[in-house]
Design brief:
InterPro entries: Rhodanese-like_dom, Rhodanese-like_dom_sf, TST/MPST-like. By secondary structure, the protein is α/β, with parallel strands linked by helices. Helix content is 29%, strand content 14%.
């Protein structure tokens, strides 16, 4: 079964404000496993003011696999369907996702919806920061919602890759470009954030933070993003990775805006790769 044509990845604040009833709006937040106070504070922040008509989507608790040893991993189709239904998502509904950060959390849920066959989903460019900067109102209402009828239609196997598929790239058995999207010191290994320092052999590097306007938090224009990604071969698929697949989804969003459709996210990313001492990591001096 062919998937419907996806919407443009981004929606502007002006477009959303002009016709909010057209969308089911989700505010995306997350917490690390076991860190209950942080999850409570995210919900409290939502209750104190959110984009009118939006529902809260807990990326860790509801839209991730609770049985994975790694944080924020993709849930199975049934679990994802249940979470979407609980958020009131209907099968034929257009969705806008946003967050209170730099868009990577919203991008992760956007990527998950696309992976499970729902193409009518967009990320609010600039998120809550852009909404507030435009002088638009917030709401504290949390109306009871009827459960949705969303069902994951298909699992797009090209959306995610696992450790063995990345290892095949490293070994020259699979044709793809590995793109590390973490900050430069983490990429080089000067800063250790995971079990071991460094990056996967053969990786290219574009820090996700360089893809955003420093003042507004908006993604850079498509033409500028294409310049940022100029080091990538346009004819070879891209695999993005980061720490645990969140920032990698943010860069997958930027690549989609830049016109790339051959992108996958390494879900386990460095939190998984660095935990296995048999898998090589490379450090560099710059």
């Amino acid at each position: 079964m062919s998937l419907p044509t996806p919407l443009y990845p981004l929606v502007s604040v002006a477009s959303l404000a002009a016709d909010p009833q057209r969308y089911r709006i989700l505010e995306v937040a997350a917490r690390k496993a076991g860190d209950v106070p942080q999850a409570v504070s995210a919900r409290e922040a939502f209750s104190q003011g959110h984009i009118p008509g939006s529902a809260f989507a807990d990326l860790c608790q509801d839209f991730s696999d609770p049985h994975s040893p790694w944080p924020y991993q993709r849930p199975g189709a049934q679990a994802f369907s249940r979470a979407a239904q609980a958020a009131g998502i209907r099968q034929d509904q257009s969705i806008v996702v946003y967050d209170r950060s730099d868009g990577i959390w919203a991008a992760r849920l956007w990527w998950l919806f696309r992976a499970y066959g729902h193409r009518r989903v967009q990320v609010l460019d600039g998120g809550l920061q852009a909404w507030c900067a435009a002088g638009l109102p917030l709401d504290q209402a949390q109306d009871a919602m009827a459960p949705g009828d969303f069902e994951a239609r298909a699992d797009d196997e090209a959306a995610f890759v696992d450790r063995e598929q990345v290892l095949a790239v490293v070994n020259g058995e699979r044709r793809a470009q590995l793109l590390n999207v973490l900050r430069r010191p983490v990429f080089t290994g000067a800063e250790q954030r995971y079990a071991r320092a460094g990056h996967i052999p053969g990786s290219l590097h574009v820090a996700h933070g360089t893809l955003l306007d420093a003042q507004s938090g908006l993604l850079l224009p498509a033409a500028v993003l294409r310049e940022r990604f100029a080091l990538l071969n346009p004819h070879v698929p891209v695999i993005t990775y980061c720490g645990s697949g969140i920032t990698a989804a943010g860069t997958a969003l930027a690549l989609a805006v830049a016109g790339r459709e051959d992108v996958a996210v390494y879900d386990g990313s460095l939190v998984e790769w660095s935990a296995d001492p048999t898998l090589a990591l490379v450090t560099s001096s710059d």
